[in-house]
Amino acid sequence: MAKPVVLAVDDDREVLAAIERDLRRHFSDRYRILTASSGPEALEALNQLQRRGGSVALLLVDQRMPGMTGIGLLGEARKLYPEAMRVLLTAYADTGAAIAAINEVALHHYLMKPWDPPEERLYPVLEDLLSEWAGRVRPSFDGIRILGSRWSPQSFAAREFLMRNQVPYQWTDIDLDASARDLVASIAGDSPRLPIVLFPDGSSLVAPGNAELAEKAGLQTLATRPFYDLVIVGAGPAGLANAVYGASEGLRTLLVEQHAPGGQAGTSSFIENYLGFPGGLTGADLAQRAVAQARRFGVEMLIGQPASGMRREDPYRIVSLADGHEVSCHALVIAAGMAVRELDLPGIAPLVGTGVFYGAAMSEAVLYRDQDVAIVGGANSAGQCALFLSRYARSVTLLVRAPSLSPRMSRYLVDRIGVTSNIRVMTGVELTGARGERHLQQVALLEHEKGEARSLDVAALFVFIGVAPRTERFAGLVELDTKGFILTGPDLPRGSRTWPLERDPLMFETSVPGVFAAGDVRSGADRRIAAAVGEGSAAIHSVLRYLRTV
Ligand SMILES: Cc1cc2nc3c(=O)[nH]c(=O)nc-3n(C[C@H](O)[C@H](O)[C@H](O)COP(=O)(O)OP(=O)(O)OC[C@H]3O[C@@H](n4cnc5c(N)ncnc54)[C@H](O)[C@@H]3O)c2cc1C
Question: What are 345-398's pLDDT values in tens digits?
């Protein structure tokens, strides 16, 4: 944690050097001593500090300075650091101005020049003020800060991206914090695009995309080599397992992930049916463990980097990345999983990210403390999310189209929901739309049995209405089934036009030799974590057999 700052300001260089010397001698073990020789210079330093998330404990400012008086400076500085202790250095003749400043800028103290000996006339006063400051100010956060609005979808996206990648950050809602609003305006103007992300080195990004954010947050976004034995697209359970087994067999392995490791499983609030974890574990925990294991075996992992296509230049398979780079490999595994299907209903699209969320959106749960929220969907992922949100929200309404929760939801979740008092299950209802100004306020429903329309006031809606394979970038390159899942091995139609070799395709091999698919994205897969891990691991056997032929 960086030390809080004590800033001394005086236009007389000799006096300034003397203050600096005395302050350093007594306080430099606990505070960072900075100096400035004018009001504007001091304000610039304070602005810089604020961008970096630094804290200021005390301002010791000379009253008589050309351009901007000490009182003028303290007034401006108060807007940036309202909690900092404000001390005016005055000559005897300025006592009147100092007394007036007690009200004008809430001056905490004024000190007469000269202050010799400092042991008697400077240190005791400043010690008192600094201990008062330390008692009422919580330590500042010196990591990444996101300044945004709860009602800006991009602010949600940035928070969610960092949280899913387990990068710590501090969130400030500018609608609730005037000094953060001023800081945003000083960086990006009066109606900025949000969020503004501030980094500890003093730099900032305005409404960044995943790749920019990943790079600045220190996540790897560029491959270190042009060629790998194995490239895997997607770091869900299937891709991570594939990477661990591939690298442990000595393959130079690159994992390419567009969002965050863990995939769908990484968004799960609590996984209770994964073998070996009788007490259950969170998706974030599972992802973190798998990433650590993959890294230990030397897997390289690109984050925030979508694979945008693939081409074949025998014996190479070349993967293009969204930033224009390409990587080549001998074997490619597509483990791109599935994405929550989007709702095409009136009012939904403008509210996505400002009350309507696809999937679990765990970063948001705490923002809906003591509010009413709804979940649409009746499968396990919806049930898990309901239990998770019930810890924060006042009420959680589960909107289910079917006449009952089972058989789509596992028994253990149905039972748990049944005994959670703030979860209400509405069966036989269909979501027909959403309403709200700036953010979601109400959802529209149709009750099937009565054929009646009704509405429900909710602050958030979490959508789990089924999933679709993420194969749009591979359509036309590998053969898909009618629902868009990738066909592999024995499922490829006999005499397939695109299968070019004499031998039969290997298990998990797609219609392109050397290109494999594993996990939820594969036609016929059992869509569970253990199955995805199993497929990712087993696919390495086929990869190794294939590599012996190139
Ligand atoms: C909320 C929730 C809770 C769940 N809970 C359970 C549970 O308790 N037990 C259970 O067994 N199953 C559970 N499931 C199902 C389980 O998570 C999935 O079956 C499993 O995650 C599938 O793994 P996968 O690796 O095949 O795909 P995914 O998990 O979907 O991972 C695919 C990854 O590929 C990435 N990707 C996609 N396209 C690209 C591209 N072009 N470039 C780069 N990266 C790309 C995605 O960003 C994603 O990270 C749950 C699912 C959800 C949504």
Answer: 999 999 999 999 998 777 788 889 999 999 999 999 999 999 999 999 999 999
Q: Tokens in use for 111? A: 């000190």
Ligand 1 site, residue 303, Cβ cutoff 6 A: no
Q: Per-residue pLDDT tens for 141-156? A: 778 999 999 889 999 9
Q: Is 374 exposed, middle or buried (0-12, 13-18, 19+ CB in 10 A)?
A: buried
- Please give the number of the atom of ligand 1 that sits closest to the Cα of 307: 42
pLDDT digits (tens, 9 = 90+) for 81-122: 999 999 999 888 888 888 888 888 889 999 888 888 999 889
CA–CA gap between residue 542 and residue 540 (Å, rounded): 5
Token pair, residue 23, equals: 């302050």
Beta bridge partner(s), residue 220: none
Residue 335 near ligand 1, beta carbon < 6 Å: yes
Q: Residue 238 Cα, ligand 1 centroid: separation in angstroms?
A: 8
Cβ of residue 265 lying under 6 Å from some atom of ligand 1: yes
Q: What contacts 46, CB < 8 A, 6 or more positions away? A: 7, 56, 77, 80, 81
Long-range contacts, 17-20 (Cβ 8 Å, 24+): 19/60, 19/89
Distance 528 CA to ligand 1 centre (A): 9
Phi then psi for 468, rounded to 5 degrees? -130, 145
Give ∠ CA 363-184-176 in degrees, rounded to 5.
Answer: 55
Q: Output the residue whose Cα is nearest ligand 1's atom 35.
A: 234
Supply the pLDDT for residue 496.
59
Q: What span, in angstroms and rounded, lies between the C-alpha atoms of 76 and 291?
A: 47
**Burial (CB count <10 Å: 0-12, 13-18, 19+), residue 12:** middle
Q: Is 259 in the pocket of ligand 1 (CB under 6 A)?
A: yes
Q: Between 112 and 32, whose confidence is greater?
A: 32
Ranking 181-185, 251-255, 513-517 by mean pLDDT, the lowest is: 181-185
Residue 114: cis peptide before it, omega within 30 degrees of 0:
yes
